[in-house]
Structures are given as C-alpha cells and as structure tokens.
C-alpha cells in the first residue's frame, strides 16, 4: 500500500490518496474522486503508509481512453465558456468570465469569473444547467487567481510565480518593502495582478534577522579604531555593512566611510525594528489606502 500526493492543477494544492499499485511513481497520471467528481491528476509524491490514515483510494492509473475523454471534456468546456459569456452579456451581468472546466466524468461544470462586486448569477446558472445537464458552479475569484489563468510575465522577465509554483497566497505588506530598503512606489512594487508582489516575502526573514544586527540610519555610533563618533547614513542589509559620516558635529571636514557591522559599536534597542502596525510612508501622491493593502 502506498500513499501518493496528487496535483490536479499545475499549481493546485496536493491531495493525498492511497493505492495498491506498488509500481506507481512520480509523474504517473491517475484518476481519482474529488469533491468535484472524477478528475485526472498527476502524482508528485509517493510515500509509505506509516499510520492508519482515512484516505480515499485512487480509482486507477490513467489510460489512453482517459486522456481521450479529458480532451473531449476540455472541448466541451470551451464551448460552455463561450455560451456562458454570451448569456452573461445578454443578462447585463457585470462579470468577466475567464475559464471553464469539466470533471473527467462530465458530471460537473465549473466556471470561473471575476467581478468588482457581488453578482446575482442565479438566472445564468439556470440557463447553463438547462443546456448542459450537469452540476454547475460559478466561482468568483480575485485578481491574483485571474493572473494564474494566463501566461503572464512578471517584472523580473520570468513567468509569474503564482502560475509556476505558488500554491497558497501568503500575506504580503508594504512593511516588508520598507524593511528591505525599497522605495515606496506602488507602480514598482505591484505585480501583474495589481497587488503587492509575492516575491517580497521570499527574503523577508533574512532581512528581519539582519536588521536586528544593524544600527538605524541617523543613529550615532562608535567605530573600532576611530576616536570620534560617527553618524549612520546608510545600511547594506544583506551584506551587513554600515556607511557612516565623521565630522557631523564639528567644524572638521565631513568624511564618509563604510564598515562591516562588527566594527560598529552601538546599543541595540529592544524591539527597534517593530513598526507601528498602521504606520506607513506616503510618497509620490499615492493614496494611503494603497499602503494598507494586504494579500490575504
């Protein structure tokens, strides 16, 4: 008996099942029952069953007939998508219909759409159900999920992360950009979906740890080997370097130097990197509400 992790969409969540197929391996295609119905998925993990887990058993290893059926369902889904768009337009519904998908057994049709407001689509569901004779689900998704539906390039020049590997959207706040020393410019910090870029989270923990080891800009410090005090003018968070200015409080000529942080003597302040939860910087005439934007 094997425990297998199956993904039914490219970046979908893992679902775990059990199987009697001892030769099953990663990348095998299988058919399994889901909450939607019968679906075709790909094995991405194979584990040994160690505990008595209440898991559903996969139905079978996918066959050529299953792939043929899936192609037919995809074709039907495209037809249903066009029909749904036409009907939504006739009903004057304020919604953008994105994609549609059938389960492998054809018992359920799911249609995804985006809208800025709640939409009363009950009449639309009745029309679609009368034509296609299947369980119909219209699911409203957000702008981040919308971007996942199309090949889209991010600011880095690569395909957006949410379409390639991100399974769950974790919170991203403007505070993360501030901690990383980035200029607060929403046009540069926003992704293709218009929300804060998910990649702001990737190095967040490293930045937070390094910030604890650094003095604040504007802080007065002592430098090992130097008699006079200096004022911190900039910090290199990743390389743990500190740029200081000598002669800031005298008539002597000002002098700028850069040192590794271990040569800087300063008193770390308790919780010095903890910002007020609602305190943000406003620049370049950007509305304050944009800085409270959080990806849920």
Outline the structure in words.
The longest helix has 27 residues, at 64-90. Helix 1 packs across helix 2 (122-132). With 296 residues, this protein is of the alpha+beta class. Mean pLDDT is 84; it is low at 271-296. The chain is 22% helix and 25% strand. A five-stranded antiparallel β-sheet has the order 2-1-4-3-5. The chain is elongated. It has helices at residues 64-90, 122-132, 143-148, 161-164, 174-179, 186-189, 204-211, and strands spanning 2-7, 14-19, 29-33, 38-48, 60-61, 96-102, 108-114, 135-140, 220-223, 230-236, 241-246, 255-260, 264-265. The protein has four domains: 2-62, no CATH class; 67-141, GMP Synthetase, Chain A, domain 3, CATH 3.30.300; 169-208 and 275-292, no CATH class; 215-265, Roll (SH3 type barrels), CATH 2.30.30. The chain is built from seven helices and 13 strands.
pLDDT averaged residue by residue = 84
Helix/strand structural class: alpha+beta
Q: Uncertain spans, ≥5 residues at pLDDT below 50?
A: 271-296
* H/E element sequence: EEEEEHEEHEHHHHHEEEEE
Task: Name a few traits of the molecule.
13 strands; alpha+beta; 25% strand; disordered C terminus; 22% helix
What is the topological layout?
Blueprint: E1 2-7, E2 14-19, E3 29-33, E4 38-48, E5 60-61, H1 64-90, E6 96-102, E7 108-114, H2 122-132, E8 135-140, H3 143-148, H4 161-164, H5 174-179, H6 186-189, H7 204-211, E9 220-223, E10 230-236, E11 241-246, E12 255-260, E13 264-265
Parallel strand pairs: 7-8
Antiparallel strand pairs: 1-2, 1-4, 3-4, 3-5, 6-7, 9-10, 9-13, 10-11, 11-12
Helix pairs in contact: 1-2
């Amino acid at each position: 008996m094997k425990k297998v992790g199956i993904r039914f969409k490219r970046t979908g969540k893992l679902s775990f099942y059990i199987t009697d197929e001892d030769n099953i391996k990663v990348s095998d295609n299988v058919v399994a029952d889901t909450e939607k119905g019968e679906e075709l998925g790909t094995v991405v993990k194979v584990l040994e069953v160690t505990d008595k887990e209440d898991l559903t058993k996969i139905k079978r290893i996918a066959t050529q007939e299953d792939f043929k059926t899936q192609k037919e369902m995809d074709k039907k889904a495209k037809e249903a998508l066009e029909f749904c768009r036409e009907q939504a337009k006739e009903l004057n519904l304020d919604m953008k219909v994105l994609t549609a998908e059938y389960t492998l057994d054809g018992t359920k049709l799911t249609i995804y759409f985006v809208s800025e407001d709640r939409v009363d689509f009950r009449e639309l569901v009745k029309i679609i159900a009368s034509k296609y004779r299947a369980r119909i689900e219209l699911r409203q998704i957000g702008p981040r999920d919308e971007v996942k539906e199309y090949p889209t390039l991010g600011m880095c020049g690569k395909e957006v992360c949410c379409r390639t590997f991100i399974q769950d959207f974790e919170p991203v706040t403007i505070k993360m950009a501030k901690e990383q020393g980035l200029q607060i410019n929403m046009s540069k910090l926003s992704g293709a979906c218009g929300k804060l870029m998910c990649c702001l989270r990737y190095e967040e923990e490293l930045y937070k740890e390094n910030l604890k080891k650094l003095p604040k800009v504007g802080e007065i410090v002592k430098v090992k080997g130097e008699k006079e005090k200096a004022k911190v003018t900039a910090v290199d968070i990743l390389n743990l370097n500190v740029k200081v200015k000598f002669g800031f409080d005298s008539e002597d000529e000002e002098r700028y130097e850069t040192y590794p942080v271990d040569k800087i003597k300063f008193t770390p302040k308790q919780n010095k990197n903890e910002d007020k939860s609602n305190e943000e910087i406003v620049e370049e005439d950007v509305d304050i509400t944009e800085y409270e934007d959080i990806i849920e």
